[in-house]
């Protein structure tokens, strides 16, 4: 009886050690660690809400994005997307992000959140960052019943699941949309076109002026006497 009890205790101890090792692999990454104590409370609240709404995932990606305003030449930043860190997002060619792998992260409620910044675009590819992302990346969703085209590629899988938030130095973090695929697109810009009749009359006037100039130019070209 004592032997069985010792055997059970030994198994439990080995299981605990294995769990600890797996946890350490997730929390001690060779990347820039962001202190969650310094993150905005509102930002952490949005990320926690996202994690709660998507319990099947353990690894996430927070990446900046640009959203066109009504004035299509102006981009008011910063906007961020939060979504699952899908496998293939950074090595999927035209079907993923065409930027470098994220080199920063933070751990929130035992979930890894990779953070993409512009600094990765200023440096050479970091093999440690590539290995860390690929090791912890979520399997890509290849089927989504809520879309008319169910078989999707990495960046579409991400956008279908991602939320859009807005934050900044002088701005409180605000959740804008839970559908990045419909929100993070170019907005339709209203355009007041001139009256069609006015366009037609202007076009006729331009043609007349062009014809006069063309005739004048032709008359200045010397012509052989035999013609």
Question: Can you give a write-up of this model?
Answer:
The protein has 227 residues and is of the alpha/beta class. It has helices at residues 2-27, 41-53, 127-136, 154-161, 180-183, 196-219, and strands spanning 32-33, 59-65, 79-84, 104-108, 111-115, 163-168, 171-177. The chain has a domain at 26-183. The protein has a seven-stranded mixed beta sheet with strand order 1-4-5-2-3-6-7, with helices on both faces. The longest helix has 26 residues, at 2-27. The protein is globular.
Which oligomeric state applies? Answer: single chain
SSE pattern: HEHEEEEHHEEHH
Gross morphology is: globular
Report the sheet with the most strands, covering strand number, pairing sense and barrel closure. Answer: 7 strands, mixed
Rg over CA atoms, rounded to whole Å, is: 29 Å
Note the total helix count: 6
